Amino acid sequence: MYADLHIHSTASDGTLMPEEIVELALKKNLSVISLTDHDTTDGIARALNSARGTNLEVIPGVEINTDWEDTEVHILGYYIDYHSQQLQQVLHEMRHARDLRAAKMIEKLKELGISIDYEHVKKIAGRAPVGRPHIARAMVECGYVSSIKDAFEAYLERGKPGYVPRTKMDPFTAISVIEKANGIPVLAHPGLMERDSLIPALVKKGLLGIEVFYPLHDQEMIEKYKWYCRKYAQVMTGGTDHHGPGTGYPMLGEVGVDQKSVENLKFIYSLLA
Ligand SMILES: [Zn+2]
Ligand SMILES: [Zn+2]
Fold this sequence. Notes:
Layout: E1 3-7, H1 18-27, E2 32-35, H2 44-51, E3 57-68, E4 71-78, H3 85-111, H4 118-125, H5 132-141, H6 148-156, H7 171-180, E5 184-187, H8 190-193, H9 199-205, E6 209-213, H10 219-231, E7 235-238, H11 259-272
Helix pairs in contact: 1-2, 4-5, 5-6
The site of one zinc ion has 4 residues, from loops.
């Protein structure tokens, strides 16, 4: 594989540090990777630093989690100017909203007789933005539920008594956030959101690519999204969504794109710059 363009590090919810990801990518003989942490660019400088002097190219990236109607839509941003103050401001607000949401959920759980500590949840999350999986793990560790799955099914899923909705960013706003930071907005794993009817509107807003190659995309989906790319002049991207060994995602480089796709991405970037 030439390039893996969808990778998470400890800057968000991955288990490998940016330096370890670079090391692994070199071991797997990848030529290009992109670090695409959720709502943060904190790992990028570290990844760029440790790739310096090697043959590995690191494309600065981000994955912005948004909501549309009753589904989550993730928008990737490639070649993002992570020094952009405006971008950092938006991402900071998004992460802060997560902290507030977590605190509210812990409060709700307390009312239900489940007493977990915010500090405990924070500790589990490490430097990653706190989220429901971390709350679920604290519930398991305190013996309130027997598994993370149970915690979600009984308390933390939408509609369950411990659930608090997120402050929503919609995918159109995410596209303009990425545009303003001079990045290339790409629709992540469209096969997961099953909302293809949204694609033309996203393209109209400025979407420039679609993640065609993704672990959970079967051959039929791949063909379908290739067709969308041709029809709407979108660049094809792909990657593993790697979150670290043993997290259920494929190993780095097992899904990705060839050199031509990366060159297309670069070409678009040269037009933006
Ligand atoms: Zn995603
Ligand atoms: Zn991801």
